[in-house]
Specification:
alpha+beta
């Protein structure tokens, strides 16, 4: 027995033979403490679960919103932060593993051992209580035997004394003396019997008491010692097991921390700066220097401006129209037909149907040149990939159709015919769309080249647009082209250079000859001497427009133009375009175009 093995050393049975009650209390407190340790593990496991849950909620709350644009141009700091969130989510998973292992491997073991210890303690205490009760019963028997012996002894002494008195009394008869002698003998016999019984019970009690304190009760105490030591060993093992649970996940946690450090090391501020450039670069050139205007010297352009003004006045007289502010408002009545509700509704529906999922136009014309070129390039690559995939699918259907035609047992070729026709139709649509975006990309590249040219620069000073020639100075002599025609430097005055429908000075095929702006029959302007107004934005033609009035220019559906003067409330917008004939400028109906103004 385990209790006998303990006897070789210091045991509770030897040293604490008289501490039954204290040992019972001690073992009870020990088991209660052991169960309290189990409650600690249970609460810690709950905290680990709650911690993991809060970590996952934290990761969810701080997860960056996904967008296609961000995926294409992600900053290294954002990518690093996403990786950190992934590592934190992994940490949450490890905390859940810790909680699960604490419950399954530690808490359950503690509860099971505590139950066993309680049962063993109860059994040992019941055994000890039984032994103690038996000893107390034997001691009670001994006490009764002793009391009987004491009573019998006193009665025997009293009977002897009565006999001696009767024997010495000569007044008593011999019969009375004999009676006293018989009573004395009876009492002496009873005393001897009680003495023998008392001696016997004393022997039995001493033997049982010796057995009780030297063998039986120490065995019970040793059992209590064994279960208490078992509890202590369990405490030791379960503390180690709880630590082992942490050790098991520590390599993974270390890798998570290493991942965070690696994510931090991957951040490159220079690369992020380049991404900002790629994301927001417009492609426009910054404005040039503002020229110095020396008021002390006569303005060489004054005469030219006066001449141009007179020429414009003459032209206005010829057409019967003026360009004053009051008369500009009259154009609303003339061309109000273009601003009808039907046209506006059709334009709105057309614009809405031509927006991408991210709110941009299909041709990305609302973006700056560089950004538009990037979007168009990505769209072309996407369509090329789709065309290649659809072409591969179509080729596969063609092969399948050929196999079915060669061996009808394998399948009906007509079932493939319908799929093949659908694939061909999809392929045609993709190729048509690819060709459309390739043309848009080519136009965007050409437009970017024009906007990067020196002729696109302009300077606004004192409410007027001042021309800057390629040599960086104003030169009145350079305002004459090869044909000897005069081109006014001041492009800001509506009466001198605004290509309104009433001024008749637009560079359309309906402009008046000799007006200083050229016509379709004239040679294109020399770009070296042409000073264009800086565009306010771009526009796209929603419908075709045939110029039927002076100062207007025709346009085809989908054509891209530059906006150089917004609608002043008369229903017309001043635009410009670059063609093989040079720059053309004039007015178009506002309801016929979709404008995107630069910020």
């Amino acid at each position: 027995m385990a209790a006998q093995e303990i006897e070789n050393g210091t045991t509770w049975g030897k040293e604490l033979w008289d501490q039954f009650d204290n040992l019972a209390t001690h073992t009870q407190k020990g088991i209660d403490f052991f169960e309290r340790f189990g409650n600690f593990i249970r609460d810690r496991s709950a905290i680990e679960v709650e911690y993991a849950l809060k970590l996952r909620r934290l990761v969810k709350n701080y997860q960056p919103k996904k967008s296609k644009e961000d995926e294409e141009n992600e900053f290294s700091s954002l990518i690093a932060f996403k990786n950190v969130l992934k590592e934190v989510a992994d940490l949450a998973g490890q905390r859940e593993v810790v909680a699960e292992n604490l419950q399954n491997q530690v808490l359950q073991g503690i509860m099971l051992l505590a139950k066993i210890l309680r049962e063993e303690r109860k059994k040992a205490l019941n055994q000890g209580a039984g032994l103690t009760q038996s000893l107390h019963t034997q001691i009670g028997t001994l006490d009764r035997a002793k009391r009987s012996y004491e009573k019998a002894f006193r009665e025997a002494e009293k009977a002897i004394e009565s006999y001696h008195k009767a024997d010495a009394d000569f007044h008593l008869s011999r019969a009375d003396v004999e009676k006293q002698r018989v009573n004395m003998n009876i009492r002496n016999s009873q005393s001897e019997d009680a003495k023998s019984e008392y001696a016997n019970q004393l022997q039995i009690t001493n033997k049982q008491q010796q057995q009780h304190y030297q063998i039986a009760l120490p065995e019970v105490f040793n059992k209590l010692q064994e279960l208490d030591e078992k509890r202590t060993r369990g405490m030791k093992e379960f503390i180690k097991r709880a630590a082992d649970v942490e050790y098991e996940v520590s390599p993974i946690i270390a890798r998570c921390l290493e991942g965070m450090v690696k994510a931090a090391d991957s951040i490159n501020e220079k690369d992020d700066s380049m991404i900002v450039i790629e994301k927001y670069q417009s492609g426009f050139q910054p404005p040039g220097d503002i020229p110095f205007e020396d008021l002390s010297k006569p303005d060489p352009d004054a005469a030219n401006n006066s001449q141009t003004h007179n020429s414009s006045t003459g032209l206005n007289h010829m057409t019967g129209k003026g360009t004053t502010k009051d008369k500009l408002k009259k154009r609303v009545g003339i061309f109000g037909i273009f601003t009808g509700n039907k046209k506006i509704l059709e334009a709105y529906i057309h614009v809405k149907n031509n927006l991408t999922t991210d709110g941009l136009k299909e041709d990305f014309s609302d973006l700056p040149p560089t950004q538009r070129r990037k979007k168009l390039t990505a769209k072309v690559q996407e369509l090329q990939q789709k065309v290649a995939q659809e072409q591969a699918a179509s080729d596969g259907l063609m092969k399948m159709k050929g196999v079915y035609e060669a061996n009808s047992m394998l399948g009906d070729p007509r079932t493939v015919e319908e799929q093949l026709n659908e694939s061909v139709n999809r392929l045609d649509r993709l190729r048509h769309e690819l060709l459309r975006y390739q043309k848009l990309l080519e136009q965007a590249n050409n437009q970017t080249f024009i906007q990067h040219s020196p002729q696109s620069n302009r300077v606004i000073q004192n409410g007027q647009r001042s021309s800057r020639h390629s040599n960086g100075s104003s030169n009145h002599e350079n305002s004459h082209d090869d044909n000897g025609e005069d081109h006014p430097d001041d492009a800001g005055s509506l009466s001198s250079s605004s290509a309104s429908p009433e001024s008749g000075l637009g560079t359309s095929h309906t402009s008046l000859p000799g007006s200083g702006q050229g016509s379709t029959n004239e040679q294109p302007m020399n770009e070296e001497y042409y000073e264009a107004d800086a565009p306010l934005g771009t526009c796209r033609a929603l419908y075709p427009f045939d110029a039927t009035s002076e100062g207007s220019i025709p346009m085809s559906e989908g054509e891209e133009l530059q906006v150089i003067e917004v609608d002043q409330g008369d229903g017309w917008t001043r635009v410009r375009r670059f063609s093989s004939k040079g720059w053309e400028e004039g007015f178009v109906p506002t309801s016929y175009i979709e404008c995107t103004l630069y910020a």
